[in-house]
Design brief:
alpha/beta, Rossmann fold, Dehydroquinate synthase-like, alpha domain, 2 domains, two-stranded antiparallel sheet, 15 helices, 8 strands, about 55% helix
Length: about 375
């Protein structure tokens, strides 16, 4: 059996990665559109990028209108800046939202389409050169061919895909993650855990993604609690950056499963940040599906030292599910009601969410067969 494996053309990671990559950034074009959000500007992270561009005599414009969970309207606004400023390459600095927005702006800039036109299609028109600089350790978007944009007309999160969405440069410098507050560290770190564990238990898993996914799972269980409790611990931050990169590369090639499929509708309808909604779902989803892939879940339990050598696969798999719940508790992940979502409204939305989740295709990657009825049952568990 043969496999395809896709990743960025160049990856710079570790301390001082941005400085090492500076000349490569400036070589991509004459004028950059820096896609970011107001917080990145306030924290000075955007200035670190523009300083590099200034030193390289590279012109730039800044689009800082990205919000959490970017929408089609945000992409339209970014495209307007791109056209008016006559830019020729893109740089995203921020969490997953600016990186997702950059990819979508790039896709519409060269295709002439609206971002909503890509729903259900593979994006094939080459984008302008793109640089992704994450400031959180979780989304892995710097190493994926995916972007998630909310369609405001249909009130759904669109998972858009195409190898052309893969950034040309991915820069994982842990210095950028030092400013992330504990709540963001927790949400993005658990998002990375979902990426890694879903990639490992996906029908599309392959040998290279297995190695990356298991490595990421081990790093996250070892270093996320420290990064959460000690935000200035540079070793923990660096290891979490590497784990997020590993996990992103893994799920880019093996895909995600039921958690992400069910998470997107929660985010679209109740405006829950992606990492939080994933974490809310993780234990319940894995509890529901682990019996369909006990050996795979058992592998992860053994990798993190939670299962004894004489444990059966079934017992070890159960211990991994319990370990995920424990890690979510350590990181202060709320329940649906604890987040402030009205349970009556949540139940009312469940049929639409289940249909949207199933239609996304992600649940079908789960090794255990998952139906719309199964998804409804898992959503119902969140209300208990």
């Amino acid at each position: 059996m043969s496999f395809q494996f896709i990743m960025p053309k160049q990856i710079f990671y570790g301390e001082n990665a941005l400085s090492t990559a500076a000349e490569h950034i400036c070589a991509l074009g004459k004028k950059a559109l820096v896609v970011t959000d107001p917080m990145m500007v306030k924290l000075g992270n955007t200035a670190k990028i523009t300083d590099i561009l200034d030193k390289g005599d590279t012109r730039y414009a800044i689009f800082d209108g990205v919000i959490s969970e970017p929408t089609d309207k945000i992409i339209e606004a970014g495209l307007k800046v791109w056209n008016n400023e006559k830019c020729d390459f893109l740089i995203a600095v921020g969490g997953g939202s600016p990186i997702d927005a950059m990819k979508a702006i790039g896709a519409v800039a060269t295709s002439g389409c609206s971002v909503n036109d890509f729903l259900g299609k593979i994006i094939t028109v080459p984008t302008p050169p793109m640089v992704a600089i994450p400031t959180t350790s979780g989304t892995g978007s710097e190493a994926t061919q995916f972007t998630i944009i909310t369609n405001t007309e249909k009130d759904i999160k669109m998972l858009l895909k195409g190898a052309v969405l893969m950034p040309d440069l991915a820069i994982d410098d842990p210095a950028f993650t030092m400013t992330a507050p504990p709540s963001v560290t927790a949400a993005t770190g658990l998002d990375a855990l979902c990426h890694a564990s879903e990639a490992y238990t996906s029908r599309k898993a392959q040998p290279m993604t297995d190695d990356l996914a298991l490595s990421a799972v081990k790093r996250i269980f070892k270093y996320l609690p420290t990064a959460y409790r000690e935000p200035q611990n540079i070793e923990a931050r660096e290891q979490m950056s590497l784990a997020a990169l590993e996990a992103g590369t893994a799920f880019n090639n093996a895909s995600v499963t039921v958690i992400h499929g069910m998470s997107r509708p929660i985010g679209a309808l109740f405006h829950v940040p992606h990492g939080i909604s994933n974490a809310m779902l993780m234990a319940e989803c894995f509890d529901y599906v682990y019996d369909g892939a006990e050996k795979r879940f058992a592998d992860m339990a053994r990798a993190i030292g939670k299962a004894a050598s004489d444990d059966s696969d079934s017992a070890a798999a159960r211990k991994f599910v319990d370990a995920c719940k424990e890690l979510c508790d350590i990181c202060g992940i709320p329940s649906v009601s604890g987040y402030g979502i009205d349970l009556a409204e949540f139940r009312k939305a469940m049929p639409k969410m289940a249909e949207d989740a199933f239609a996304s295709g992600s649940p079908s990657n789960t090794i255990k067969d998952i139906s719309v009825e199964d998804i409804l049952k898992i959503y119902d568990r969140l209300c208990k």
